[in-house]
Structure formats: structure tokens, C-alpha cells
Amino acid sequence: MRLDARDLDILRALAANGRMTNADLAAAVGLSASPCWERVRKLQDAGVIEGIHARIALKKIGPHVTVFVTVELTDHTAAAFRRFEAAMGRYDQVTGCWALGGGYDYLLHIVARDIESYQALLDDMLDAGIGLARYFTYVVTKTVKDSPVPPFAALLGK
How many CB atoms lie within 10 A of CB 108? Predict the structure, then answer.
């Protein structure tokens, strides 16, 4: 699907505030409501918009720790990668998992109640036989930037 400037404006606005009404979105991007809704539907149908999500302020819910973990597997077969990836879906505290090219096999984003809960999770993973050989923990001490809006201009070379 070819995206024009208006499509990018719609995506930018929805990424920043997915709860805006169609009328507000249309006004923000300079369209009337009907054509705006048609564009949103086309973007959804094409899979460009995968969903609309709420950003949750975890600090308002309770204490927590955010951890990034680099992972090395014991084995580098396709079956080992599938086993590890399937296991990640069973851990609710793992909120993101990316396969990497380079020195590490995966990067995990984990949210836990505290460091003890995080360590219990990793101990469980080590005992579960999912192929985890080594891991390196990076505890987030402060969020500096966490933007929901992708860099559209940079991605499209503009």
C-alpha cells in the first residue's frame, strides 16, 4: 500500500492518541469525517494499523521494575529457536521479545513486581529447559524517551 502525506498524518495522530474520535482525527488531518474514516478503514484492512492500545502508567498501579535482558541460547538449531520463542508466550512478565542478529540471540523486555520476582522468573526459565544458556540483565532506572509515534519521515527517506 502506498501511503501519502495524509495517511501519515492519520497514523501519526492515532499513534499519539488512539482514543480520538473520528471527527477530531478528521479535523487534525484536514479532512471531513467520511473520507477520514474511509482512510482509517483502508489502513486497518491493509494491516498498517494493527490495533489501538492504551498506554498504562504502571507507576500508578503499583511498584514495579522494568528490565531488559539479553539472552544466549545453548543451541542454535531451528528447533531450539522455536522452543524458546514458544516459551516466551507463556510468561506474562515478558512484554517484548526480539530475535537479534549479532552477539546475542534475543532481547527481552520484562516487567516484574520487584527484583526478587524478576529473579524468580529467570530461575524458572533456566529450570524450564527452554534452552537459555546465559543472560545479562539491564535494570531500567529512568525512562528518558518512550515514544509511541514511529519516525515516519526517516523510515520513508523524507
Answer: 22
- Do residues 55 and 95 touch, judged by C-beta distance below 8 A? no
Q: What is the DSSP letter of 91?
A: -
What would the grid cell of residue 2 be?
Answer: 502506498
Question: Helix axis angle, 33-45 relative to 22-29, nearest 10°?
Answer: 100
pLDDT at 43: 97
The residues, any chain, with a CB within 8 Å of residue 8's CB and separated by 6 or more, are 152, 156
pLDDT tens-digit readout, 144-155: 999 888 998 888
What does pTM read for this prediction? 0.85
Residue 78 pLDDT:
97
Average pLDDT, the chain: 95
Strands 106-112 and 65-73: antiparallel
Looking at the chain, how many residues does it have?
Answer: 158
* Alpha-carbon span 44 to 156, nearest angstrom: 19
Q: Which stretches within 46-114 are classed as H helix?
A: 58-61, 78-88
